[in-house]
Design a protein that fits this description.
Helix content: 10-25%
Number of helices: 7
Number of strands: 20
Largest sheet: 9 strands, antiparallel
Structural class: alpha+beta
Length: about 400
Amino acid sequence: MKKIIFTLVSVFILSILVSCASAPVESQDNSSLESIVVSETEALSWNKKSHGFVEKESSNLKIKSKGKLGTFNIYIRDRDDRLLPVFSTQEEFTTTSFYLQVGRKVFKLSGGTGITTATRETVDGIQIVYIVPKIAQVLVDFKILSSNEKRDGDIVKVSAYVKNLKGRNDTFALKLLLDTAIGEKRPTHFYDSENIPIKTETLYRSVANYPWVLTGNETSSFQILYSGADTTEPELVAVGAYETLNTMNWEPTIVSNRSFDTVSSYNNSALEISWKPVDLEKDAADVFTLYFAVASFPDSINGESFIENYVAPVEEKEPEAPKTEIISADDVPFEEAVADESSDVTEAVIPVFTGNSTQSADSSTEYVQRILDRIAELETGDKELNQDELLLLNEELDEILMRLRDN
């Protein structure tokens, strides 16, 4: 009798383990993050099955990952059907990477450092897992989405799940270093959400007014969105030379108005996103989320409108009514609070990053006005302190006015 009971219990436990191992990670939410775990044996089986190399693509982009190194890249498909890498392809994509801080110790999440890394294909994207033995697991889920029904896969949702494997409570923080390559050959590597060029090192400690950054070349554009919708708002965003940001110090040393040039490289710019530390209990987990958007000329990039019109998915398995997200008045921008409610909503359109000479007259006029407003703002302050930025903005203004006149 005891033998029969033992056998039944063993079968029951085995069935639970099998069901947990096969549960899809992409369906998890904050209430069940603790169940996200990939064993080292399972991770190695991912690499064996895929030979450590996975790709997923749509009509507009492709995601590529190398599991044995834990690296990834995103490619934009332009109008000539060429795939243009967004991030540097040097050293097998290793210059773009996630970093994890546990307590005071910092880990660069990559293979060959005692960290187990693996990749696999999912229904709508790819996943990369990083296992720091007895410390933490980070599973990064890249999911391809469409900004609207007319676009096929022009958005990538990036969700990084961090789980505490230490056996005791500790503080965990995550950051992402993006070694961008697509805009390196242009005088201006980045634009902020005010369409102001970022030509020198910049640090944003509050991103509410600067929820995204845009980069690109003459044919394609790439948008990094880290505020709004269900994103996890970062503690800081830094733009600077790659050598400046590529450091094991958790916060880089940014020098305002310093160019992206260094003694070892020319115009090698990068962007870093650092999220606030979270306290995790034993076996607890948290998630950090951001979005990427792509577009190729003549299409406009839809990242901002996608975030602004975001509707949280409803869990199909949940029997009760979906929870309503409550937004406090402090979270609503002043312009939205006083705007007249109307059924005719004009969707914001961000021009493709093709340079001022190819922008429409209306877009250029609006852009010029923003530059003039910024110049007026700087001139009311310390002109000597703001001299470098004033010179840059005036140069930009002269160039635009010259192009408009020629047209």
